[in-house]
Write a structure and sequence with these properties.
By secondary structure, the chain is an alpha/beta fold. It is 40% helix and 21% strand. The protein contains 16 helices and 15 strands. The strands form three sheets. A nine-stranded mixed β-sheet has the order 7-8-6-5-4-3-2-1-9. The protein has a three-stranded antiparallel β-sheet with strand order 10-11-12, with no helix packed on it.
Length: 381
């Protein structure tokens, strides 16, 4: 069965934020300092419970929520416990997600001293009116100021997130955001189209007829023009929504697209270990009770079949601009098309239409194919 032999990744979920954004459907909510300390103690216990779950890890990623609500001392304790319980490579990529308006020079220096060597900042826009509409707590000035503070604190690997296709915006708005963000010269940029997720304020407004999505053709123009601009600024388009300077692709996120093992720790976190997918309890009270009683806090566990692994390897691999290599999945092109014999006609139809490129070695989405990637990937599920 398929599984990358690369070192694993470790993901730690921090489910706290100062304010829920209007588009956010992630597992997160508000908290007190006491809530956060209680959760950190539970995390440390879970880390100990899952000791040596993978033989070696070379990435550690703090996601959320807003991990930068934790103090540097709390982040340091978590990193030290991970090092104690797992074999974490000495040169591991350690990423912390952070939101502007939650950072100080003291915090940034503390995170860096604790071992965090990559920062991922949720900027989303460089326009204050759009930031307010999105429900963000920061201003464009905050983003610039705290980016520069991060540089001064020793961070030389920074990602900035940007959202496009915000209702009421046009191509010119997107290009202005990109110009201002690239002027800062971050090493990495994540460039996402706004999605309306159930349970969010934006989705409720949409259902009530008070929010109109950006039309698909405009969304796609924003995306392709943005991709071209980022390429002109020296960013490699290595995954559908991700762009990096040479050698600065996210090592951690790349694991999700290559069937590499990863351990998910914390509330609602997902794991993929030894062909098994696990999801942690998503109710805070139940999560805390489970780890306090010495139980691994799994809510669901599912053992992948060979068919599951093959399907996941294809549709996650196609997110990468390099696509998939047949040898990594089913040994050869011949074996691949024998396995997907029923789908071969549709696959070749997408090739003929210019949406897919197939060679003896592998298969990848074209620029045109990215626009209908969900339709193409659905063939392999």
């Amino acid at each position: 069965m398929i599984q990358s032999k690369e070192p694993a990744g470790i993901y730690i979920h921090i489910p706290f934020c100062l304010k829920k954004c209007n588009y956010c459907a992630f597992l997160s909510g508000t908290s007190t300092e006491a809530d956060r300390e209680t959760y950190v103690e539970a995390l440390l216990q879970e880390i100990r419970l899952r000791k040596r779950e993978v033989p070696l890890a070379d990435t550690l990623y703090f996601g959320g929520g807003t991990p930068s609500l934790l103090t540097a001392e709390q982040i340091c304790r978590i990193i030290e416990e991970v090092k104690e319980s797992f074999d974490l490579a000495s040169n591991a990529e350690i990423t912390l997600e952070a939101n502007p308006a939650t950072l100080t020079r003291e915090k940034l220096e503390g995170y860096r001293a604790a071992g965090v060597n990559r920062l991922s900042m949720g900027v989303q826009s460089m326009n204050d009116r759009r930031l307010q509409y999105l429900g963000r707590i920061h201003t464009a000035e905050d983003a610039v100021k705290e980016f520069r503070m991060a540089r001064a604190s020793g961070f030389d690997n920074i990602n900035l997130d940007l959202i496009f296709a915000v209702p009421g915006t046009h191509l010119s708005d997107v290009m202005e955001d990109l110009q201002e963000v690239t002027a800062l010269q971050p090493e990495h940029i994540s460039f996402y189209s706004l999605q309306l997720e159930e349970g969010t304020p934006f989705f409720r407004k949409f259902e009530e007829g008070r929010l109109t999505e950006v039309p698909d053709d405009e969304d796609r123009e924003m995306y392709h023009q943005g991709c071209c601009f980022l390429a002109s600024q020296g960013y490699e388009h290595y995954e559908i929504s991700n762009f990096a300077k040479a050698g600065r692709a996210s090592s951690h996120n790349s694991k999700y697209w290559s069937m590499t093992e990863y351990v998910g720790l914390g509330l609602g976190a997902s794991s993929y270990v030894n062909h098994c997918r696990m999801e942690n309890i998503s109710d805070m009270k139940e999560y805390l009770e489970a780890v306090r009683s010495g139980q691994k806090p799994f809510e669901t566990m599912y053992s992948n079949s060979e068919r599951d692994d093959v399907a996941e390897a294809v549709f996650t691999g196609l997110r990468r601009r390099e696509g998939i290599q047949f040898r990594d999945i089913l040994g050869s092109q011949e074996e691949f098309f024998r396995y997907y014999a029923e789908e071969k006609g549709e696959i070749l139809g997408f090739c003929k239409g210019g949406y897919l490129e197939v060679t003896d070695a592998g298969m990848r989405l074209t620029e045109k194919g990215i626009d209908i990637s969900n339709r193409i990937m659905a063939l392999f599920v």
